[in-house]
Amino acid sequence: MNYLQLVLKQMRQRALSTWLTTLSVTLGVGLAIAIMVLGRESQALFGQNDYGYDVLVGKKGSPLQLTLNTIYHVDVSPGNIPYEIYARLASGDLKKYVANAVPTVVGDTYQGKYRIVGTYPSMFGYDVDGQPLPADRIMNYRPGRHLEMDQGRVFAPNKFQAVVGSDIPRLTGLSIGSIFQATHGIPLPSEKPDIHAEKWTVVGILAPTHTAIDRVLYIPLNSFYTIAEHGVGLIAQEKLREGQLPDTAAKPEEADEDTVPPVDGDGIQHFKNYDYNTRDGTLKITLPPSVWALSAILVQSRGGVTGEALRYDLNNGTDVMAVNPASVMREFFDTFLKPTRQLLLGICSLVTVVAAVGILVSIYNSVSARLKEIAILRALGATRKTVLSLICLEAAVIAAIGSVLGVAVGHGINALGAWYMMHRYGEVLQYDYREVVFEAAYVACVIAAAVVAGLVPAMKAYRTPVATYLVAS
Fold first, then answer.
1. Are 76 and 200 in the same domain?
2. Can you give the residue range of the structural domain that contains 206?
3. Whole-angstrom distance, CA of residue 78 vs CA of residue 62
């Protein structure tokens, strides 16, 4: 009978104590692995530096709020900036810094949960006529990766059409041809939703990106301005910028069944903010461009120092802010998440030490109860080194079994965390299998610690006087 068989036989004889000790190792290793994986992958997710754009332009205020609202579609918008800023980036004095720029505007949701974003077809790599843009003019959401259509087509910029993220059909039941209405903001559970009368038709579904984009509904920027409440708000903001008091008596005129204007001879309905052609479904904004506003602009600079120069130029103004999203998220992680991760890793180290102590106590008690058996082994020819090796091997086997189970438990916790991140934020935690070496090294350290812990009871067995226990029997 070899050493391992002897060890396994001893473990079976005291199965309850063995499995309780193994369980403590499993929980310690599982907790440590889960924290290491979740901490590492959350850093890669929230502290990433691989955005396809290097500048976010928005209302001056909190860079973190602007980044979270624009990229991850959480938190509220920090405010609006004049449409004129986008015009300067696209074809004005700031064009020298810019390779691509895409405007976005937010403020409404679908079903009070899923963000609706107004933008241009260039967000998806198409021009206003629905034709693909050249590769160098396509905005990437990751380097070398741009939004692609999985089903249908991109929306027309002057129609009530929509393109939705890949998760929206599963979450809401919307599909190609479905019609939906927007809800103003995110109503509280006890608040009655303010549903706008305008209706959009889904004409396209995006391919999965495994980002928050998968949970967003995109509509034409122009159609966002058709909503009467938005028009009243934009006009009020324009007056405030000009130092005037807004007209508090102004009320939006929603296009409901009671206020739909008649169709004139050309098939046109004249609403407050826009004209609608009933023959081809096109719309024309009648709000003056001077009152148009945006929530943010995604900008891909021309590279080199142009991004920094653009941020410097815009940040010198009074109302507009330009930030590097990668820098913002790295700072956020280092400030808020990294210390917490280090604290949790410290706790995991203590848990691992406690598990090693548990092995020590368990085997020590076992050795105390088996001194007679050890004396018999010695009498049958087993050397002191043999006895010491058996005890240390037992500690290593318990640690190895607990560690393997702990790795499985840790990755199970990680899978639950990834599921939560996907359903809460639309972001996927990617697992890098190159890290398996690091985890294997950690398991090896746990086994080594168990062997060291096993040395204490092993030395007790090593010093067992054979004659004393054989005579006592």
1. yes
2. 55-225+292-323
3. 7
